[in-house]
Amino acid sequence: MRRALSIIALLATLVVSAPAEAGMRVVYDDPGKTKQLRIEVADNGDARIADSASADYGLLVGGEFYVVSIEGGKPTVARLKDVAAAIDQGHLRRPAMVQPFLEDIRTRGEWSLIFIDGELTHAMLKHPATEDFRVHATYGGTSTRATPPLGVVEAGRRTLAALSVAPLYARVDGVDTRRGFVVMELEVHEPSLYFGPAPEAALVFADAIVRRL
To answer: Is the pLDDT of residue 202 over 90?
Structure first.
């Protein structure tokens, strides 16, 4: 949300400061090719600004700028100045997770270990783009199926063992640093399980569901 706000606020300034032309469409590509920003201006000067990497977008209507946030397929509309004021005053509270930065992710990448009924079915090794640290494809990162070291697998098993309930499926994300495997996330609520590169794991998953019925 805040990422979208920063982009939209910047473009709002550009739209307001430049004369609007009827039916004008502008597409902005950043040098890193990690996002595409599209500006569409209507005949009356109103505008819509969207970031290809996000479902959120901005609307300039009658000189007032609005932020449209999409969650669960439903839009929430707020004036930009009201959102900014709420953030500054500490009234806008959204769930957030803060993680320490691990420098090794730049060179060693991030592992995603997929477990079905406690058994490792496959793993993905994700690397960030050059001069970046984010492994998501949105930011130029890549994901490749790979075989994790034994120590990484054992660390994943210990992570699952710490749960009070054995999950049907889980994904353990972490970095194999110079001092050992560091768990960054344990996802048990609808994570991406990367069945595309490992179609046989989808069959294992189906069998596990049937066993629990």
So the answer is: yes
pTM check: above 0.70:
no
Q: Where are the domains of the chain?
A: 2-89, 105-212
| Number of other residues whose CB lies within 10 A of the CB of residue 176 | 21
The two three-digit tokens of residue 162, written as one number: 């710490």
Per-residue pLDDT tens for 131-168? 889 898 888 999 999 999 999 999 999 999 999 999 99
Q: What is the CATH number assigned to the segment(s) 105-212?
A: 3.30.470.20
